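Thread: Newbie trying to understand structure tokens

Hi all, I'm a second-year student working on a class project, and my supervisor (Dr. K.) asked me to get a predicted structure for one chain before our next meeting. I've only ever worked with sequences, so writing a 3D structure as a token string is new to me. If someone could post the tokens and maybe explain what I'm looking at, I'd be very grateful. Here's the chain:
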Amino acid sequence: MSTATESQPMQALAEANRMRIHRAQVKRAIASGEIAIGDVLESPGDCAGMSIGHLLTSQRFWGKNRSQRFMRLHGVKD
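---
Reply by user tm_fold:
Sure, no problem. This is what the structure looks like when written as tokens:
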């Protein structure tokens, strides 16, 4: 993955970009129904730092208000 000529900041940027792309793919998969939020929570991988709110709003027909109401009702902190 990294060569001796790459600087540490460039490696960090490449890793951050890879994680952003993966998280966007996961959010698209949630929106299309390919995977469930529960699956992501059971084995988060690169999504470990994502908030529950972002995962909830990735679902079809789930906006910010619905997600916040759900989290409040179930005692989940974002």
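A couple of things are worth pointing out once you decode it. Residues 8-32 form the longest helix (25 residues). The mean pLDDT is 91. Feel free to ask follow-ups in this thread.
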